[in-house]
Amino acid sequence: MARTNQLLLAGMAGLMAVAGSARPAYAQMVKVTVRVENQANLPDDLLADAESIAAAIYANAGVDVAFVKRGDADVMVKLLSRSAEDRMRPNADAMGFVPCSESDRGHIAYVFPNRVDRVAERYTAARYVVLAVAMAHEVGHLMLPLNAHSKTGIMKATSGQLEFQRAVRGQLLFTPEQIAQIHTRLMSDAPR
Q1: Could you write out the three-class secondary structure of the chain?
Q2: Range among 80-89, 90-99, 132-141 rated most confident
Q3: What pLDDT, in 10s, does the model give residues 10-36?
Q4: Which domains, from first to last, does the chain contain?
Q5: Which of 10, 17, 50, 170 could staple 128 via S-S, CB 3.0–4.6 A?
Q6: Model-level pTM?
Q7: pLDDT value at position 58?
């Protein structure tokens, strides 16, 4: 177990080095604040690790994501309890969703930790990595056009082992077109 934790920490250190040393292809970083509402009572260390991976995914897209504990934020991620998830009756394959339309983008993303756990177990992936991918994907829906799924990358409709491995290595990316759309949206209109 200690060896596994050492490898995970080494992987995260490498990820942060990659994210920190990457030269962005855009003129400037844009900033977004994200508040996570932990209705599922997930451990703080799990959330911190997931937030680090999610922030690195966005840093590779030229977006500086700051996770805040309280107060106003540009977007909110609600980590739902199992009972709240059951009441929402989401698509069976979804680890989260964003209620929005083309005219009303909203600012709340929902993530289902119970489903995150099942996906992590199915792919023998670290729970925090799968949670990070789910969070980053759903926040992406708040900043992109309505049908934002892509064939590869963080906005792929379903994630599997390859995506989780890429997330750990700092290689789970938005497409160049998605990056441009995110920058345009954030520079012209906060995702509220």
Answers
A1: CHHHHHHHHHHHHHHHHHHHHCCCCCCCCEEEEEEEEECCCCCHHHHHHHHHHHHHHHHCCCEEEEEECCCCCCEEEEECCHHHHHHHCCCCCCCEECCCCCCCCCCEEEECHHHHHHHHHHHCCCHHHHHHHHHHHHHHHHHCCCCCCECCCCCECCCCHHHHHHHHHCCCCCCHHHHHHHHHHHHHCCCC
A2: 132-141
A3: 444 444 444 444 444 566 799 999 999
A4: 2-21+29-188 (3.40.390.10)
A5: 50
A6: 0.84
A7: 97
